[in-house]
Amino acid sequence: MVRTSRIALAASCIALAGLLTGCGGVRGTATAGEIDVRQLEVGDYAVDRHRYPQDPGEKAALLEGMRMSEAVVPSVRIDPSLEVGRGSTVIADAEQALDFVAKTSKPVFDERRLLVGYAASGADRPDPAGQTNPAPEATAVTTVLFRFPDQATAKLAARELEDVDIAISPDNRKLPSTKYPDAYIHWRPGVPTVGAFMAYKEFVVSLFIQRPHTDGTDLAGWIDKTLGAEVAQLDKFQPTPQDRIKDLKTDPDGLLARVAVADRTGRVPDVAAFAVYGPHHMVHRADDESARLRLIEETGVDRQAIADDSYVARARDAAAAERFADALLDSEGAHYDTLGAPKDVPGAKCLQLNGEGNPDREYKFRCYVSYKRYVGVVTSDKEPDVRQKVAAEYALLANSL
Hints:
By secondary structure, the protein is α+β, with helices and mostly antiparallel strands. Helices cover 25% and strands 21% of the residues. It has nine helices and 14 strands. Strand 4 (173-175) and strand 5 form a beta hairpin. It comes from Nocardia tenerifensis. Pfam families: DUF7373, DUF7373_C. This is PknH-like protein. Residues 1-17 form the signal peptide.
C-alpha cells in the first residue's frame, strides 16, 4: 500500500500520490575527506552510477505537464493569507480534466485537443480533520491551467468551457471583470463560490474560489486578484512548442538516476512515481507555503526528482543542501520523533512516526541525507529497510558525481 502525507481539494480531489522503493552492488572509491561508500550496508539497492532511457515515447506530454508546475502560481502569492497548500497534480488527459470542470465538458477538451494540464489549490486554513473540502469559513483558491495547441484554440476552448459550465444550473449568473474583460466569470447568487475561465497565450486558466460569505463584488475581486498573479506567473514561463514536446527528455539532468529505488527497469514518466518537477511543486503541497517558498528561494532549490516514494532535490550548493535537509526534517511536526540514523552515513537524520501520526497515510520511517548540492529523502514502513535505503541514497549520490 503506497502511503503519502496528505492532500485533497475542493471541487474535486487533487491526488498527491506517494514518493519511493529501490538492486544490488556498491562501487566507487573514496576521495580525500570522504568515506568509502563500498563499506555501507545498502542491502539490494543499486548504487552504481546510472542513466535512464531519455525517450518518453507516448508519455511526452506528461513531461510538459510536470514543467507546468512552475506555470501555476503558488496560492500564497495570490494572497498572503493563502499559505496552506492543498495539493497539486498534473492533468494527463480530458478524462482527468473533468475533475475540475463540468462533467459534460469532455467534448470541448476532445475537439480542442487538450495537450496536458496542471492544477494546484491553497487555502487560509487546513481542511477539517478527515475532510477533503475546505471548511465553510475558509477562503480557498483552485487554479487549473489547461494547455492547448495554440492561442486561437485556447480562446475557443475558454468560451466553450464557460458555456458548458454556466448551463449546469439555471441559477448561474455572469459577473463582469473590470481588469480582465476577456475573462468568463459566473456565480450562483446566494452561494459563496465563483468560477472563471480565461484564455492566455496557449493556455486556459480555470479558477474556482470559495469565500466565507456571499458577495458578488468580493468574489469578482478575488477572481481579478488571482488572474493577476497567474498571468504574471505565466509571463515567466516558457512553454515547450507543441512540435517539440515529443523531444522532451525523461531525466535530462540525471536527477531521477540519483534516487535509490528497488527496481530500475521499465521506467516511464509517471506523475507520482517517476517524475521531475520544478520547485513550486513542493510549495503547492506544503502545510506552510510561505515558509516552504522562502526556504526554496534561500537555498536555490531548482528541481525535485521523485521515484516511487523517495525523492532527490537539487540545491544551490552543499551548504544550501544541508540547510534544506534540516528544514525539511524540522517541518515534519510533532507526529514524528527523532530516530537514530546509521552512524556510518555522514549527516543522515531519521524520524519515526509516533502515536499522533496516521500510519495509513504516512510512512513509519523517514530519513534525510545530503551530499554536495543534493538532498535525498527516503521512507519506509520497516526500520531495517529505511536504514539500508538512506545508506544506499548517500552511496548513489556519491557515485553519481
